[in-house]
Amino acid sequence: MTRYDTIIIGAGPAGMMAAISSSFYGKSTLLLEKNRRLGKKLTGTGGGRCNVTNNGTLDDLMAGIPGNGRFLYSVFSQFDNHDIINFFQENGVKLKVEDHGRVFPTTDRSQTIIKCLEMKMLENGVDIRTGKEVVSVKKIDDLFHVNTPDETFTASQLIVTTGGKAYPSTGSTGFGHEIARHFKLAVTEIEAVESPLLTNFPHKKLQGISLDDVTLTFGKHRITHDLLFTHFGLSGPAALRLSSFVKGGETAFLDVLPTHSEQDLAEHLERNREKSVKNALRELMPERLADFFAEGYDCKVKQVHTSERENLLTKLKALPIHITGKMSLAKSFVTKGGVDLREINPKTLESKKVPGLHFAGEVLDINAHTGGFNITYCLATGWVAGSLHY
Ligand SMILES: Cc1cc2nc3c(=O)[nH]c(=O)nc-3n(C[C@H](O)[C@H](O)[C@H](O)COP(=O)(O)OP(=O)(O)OC[C@H]3O[C@@H](n4cnc5c(N)ncnc54)[C@H](O)[C@@H]3O)c2cc1C
Predict the structure, then answer these.
(1) Which end of the chain is more exposed for a tag (fewer CB within 10 A), N or C?
(2) In this predicted structure, what is the pLDDT of residue 204?
(3) Closest ligand 1 atom, residue 374 Cα
(4) Cα–Cα distance between 103 and 3 in angstroms, integer?
(5) pLDDT value of position 389
(6) Mind listing the pLDDT tens digit for each residue in 278-301?
(7) pLDDT at residue 388 in the model
(8) Angle at Cα 225 formed by Cα 77 and Cα 188, nearest 5°?
(9) Which domain holds residue 287?
(10) pLDDT in tens, 152-189
(11) Is the CB of 333 inside a 6 Å radius of any atom of ligand 1?
């Protein structure tokens, strides 16, 4: 049985940062990860480029973390997105800011981020064990006993950073919720969010088209962001964000040209009245999308009857899209629900009932939009949980 000050279960962004902070504060630290490699899910973020944080203000962070973001005020006062940016820059990683405040390594490679975290852990003397699945945890007197199939490790502090239940193929299978239940802590209901949407749309015609900053509206929700048409429906940040508000059976409306008013579009058509509808629209949007909207108007703009022109304008500004469902947890990006925040001290992320037991990252009942917001709160909660105020 090997004894440490701190054991961390799970090497995602939360776990790796918790290991860095615990070791920085002089604690002997063990990080256990069941995958052979570190940060498997993190590798796939931002289209494989690692969307490591977002450079917005605190208000932007709160808007980007719709699931219990307010719990994080104390965490962000200790370690926030600017600390994340400084951390990587001080450790030799050059970063760049893209649209919507998304921050990436200039290499456009996730490995740059993972390697930096790994290097820092090794520099601080963290004992990193990959290919080690934790199968059970017990607390005997003041010590946590952490069992893998062939070894037991003990520590007075345990940090659970096993992630949620989304994309379980990356390793996040909800084991941390089981640890919480073992210690009689409440876990809130789990639901898939940031999920691609299934629609009854003519997928084949539009499949593969991606649009920048279009607006999806559903009831009072109005989301302007990038959108991707896929073979099953809609993906990309706009669709993922909308998924928090729909279950299937709703109709959303898509404005493909939100910076143009209906009046602007009417004038555009009038200016191009000698052209075919198709060609007039092709000046405003990708060809295949223009052809889709021009279907049924196989003529010049001037030949389209006024009432038909109005129908066309309405479709361009508010195309009804019937949502038939959303992808399951297995294909969703984020888990809503997790360890009940009423169980957790927001300053230290320690369990109020079980001294020494900490939770950080997506295992907690916190969910954020993609765009760097999840990774931000995971890294920040990891740092705070690892700071171990004892
Ligand atoms: C495809 C995809 C794209 C995404 N893109 C973005 C994005 O652009 N921006 C954004 O903000 N967020 C994005 N996210 C969400 C983000 O990646 C997660 O919120 C974040 O990785 C969660 O970090 P975590 O450290 O809490 O958990 P995870 O990254 O899930 O790590 C948990 C780790 O714990 C390990 N583990 C679990 N159980 C055990 C056990 N019993 N023993 C040992 N180890 C165990 C797992 O193997 C895993 O490595 C994306 C998610 C996906 C799936």
Answers:
(1) N
(2) 80
(3) 11
(4) 38
(5) 61
(6) 999 999 999 999 999 999 999 999
(7) 72
(8) 55
(9) 197-326
(10) 999 999 999 999 999 999 999 999 999 999 999 999 99
(11) yes
Ligand 1 atom, smallest distance to 16 CA: 25
Residue 202 has pLDDT above 90, yes or no: no
Per-residue pLDDT, 191: 93
In 3-state terms, what secondary structure has residue 6? strand
The residue contributing the CA closest to ligand 1 atom 52 is: 333
Choose the residue to mutate in 16, 172, 365 for probing ligand 1, maximizing ligand atoms within 8 Å of C-beta. Answer: 172
* 236 and 356 within one domain: no
**19 neighbors 47 (Cβ within 8 angstroms):** no
Residues 6 or more apart whose CB falls under 8 angstroms from that of 118 comprise 16, 38, 128
Same domain, 362 and 269: no
69 close to ligand 1 (CB < 6 Angstrom): no
**Any atom of ligand 1 within 6 Å of the Cβ of 133:** yes
**Residue 11 CA, ligand 1 centroid: distance in Å:** 9
User: Among 133, 159, 123, 163, which residue's Cα sits nearest to residue 42?
Assistant: 163
- What whole-number distance in Å separates Cα of residue 183 and Cα of residue 201? 47
Is residue 103 lining ligand 1, measured as CB closer than 6 Å?
no
Q: Is 44 near ligand 1, meaning CB less than 6 Å away?
A: yes
CA 371 to ligand 1: nearest atom: 9
Number of domains in the chain: 2
The mean pLDDT value for 317-336 works out to 96
